[in-house]
Amino acid sequence: MTTPAGTTPAEPTPARPTPAESASARPTPAESASARPTPAESASARPTPAESASARPTPAELLRSLARTRASLDGEEVTYWWSGDVYSWAPDEPYQRIFGFEGLNVARLVQDAEAGPDAYQLLTREAAFYLDPTTREILETWQDRPVVHVWNDPANQKWRPFPVPVTELGGQVCFSLEIPLSYPSPLPVGQYPDHSAGDTYKALELFQFFADRADLAGPEPSVPATMSWSRMSPWLPWMAQGQRPGGLTFHCRGRKLGSYDEVPERTRAYIADRHPEFAHAPEAWSEPNETSWTYFRKLHPPR
Predict the structure, then answer these.
(1) What pLDDT is attached to residue 55?
(2) Over the stretch 220-250, which tens digit does the pLDDT of each residue have?
(3) DSSP letters of the chain?
């Protein structure tokens, strides 16, 4: 028998179960109870605290991931380059962008065998330059005062395992380092009344390093990365602001370069003409670290 196009043959109406048959198909209360897992079975399905903890990276594993992001586990030189701006602030005054800022850090990571298998030394030199906020040219003077750029040699760090703060950002991982600083100033007010904001140096440095989760899951000793850096600090010594209330905020971003040759040519030429050693990381540990404050003191010893 055929049917009109677009229709299907009629199907017989199914027989409905009787009330007795419907009732007999439902599970009894005892059967329903036996199908539910017991409290012991439910508890056994949940991971134990030990199992949950084992799924989290250890401080040593976190430090190793940070090391691959910040530097390279094989001891090869790694260059970070950044660019940004410097803003002034003072009571009852508007925030002002007074400088551009560009810098680089050349680092070598080595194991600190005396401190244990998961300890490192980060050996670095760091140069950075204050720029005209409009033209982005490297400044030599500011308000008729000579500009003292950043020549930190060394800028070393000792790394030990610690719970590195990590934020998951989809396919990326962010390592955050918040470093509050407070120590006796290398420039006491009594010796440097025009160049020191106070007898205690206080600042806040905020770093973020970003890497792809897929790269960190791989075997390479170094992974591509980007970074951000902010700093709140007193007036710079060469600005000669004395104890005037206020200070500076630095706001920069940058990336890990494939090599030092990727630093902008203008910046490489400036370094080559003045301090060519800043094209490479130190070969061995030394201390103390150089800062803008200790460098200014070297240029202007107390009388």
Answers:
(1) 73
(2) 999 999 999 999 999 999 999 999 999 999 9
(3) ----TT--PPPPPPPPPPHHHHHHHSPPHHHHHHHSPPHHHHHHHSPPHHHHHHHSPPHHHHHHHHHHHHS-TT---EEEEEEEEEEEEETTEEEEEEEEEEEEEEEEEEE-GGG-TT-EEEEEEEEEEEE-TTT-PBPSEETTEE---EEES---EEE------EEEETTEEEEEEEEEEEEE-SS-TTT-TTT-S-SEEEEEEEEEEEEEHHHHTS--SS---EEEEEEEEPPPGGG--TT-S-EEEEEEEEEE-SSGGGS-HHHHHHHHHH-GGGGS--SS---SPP-HHHHHHHHS---
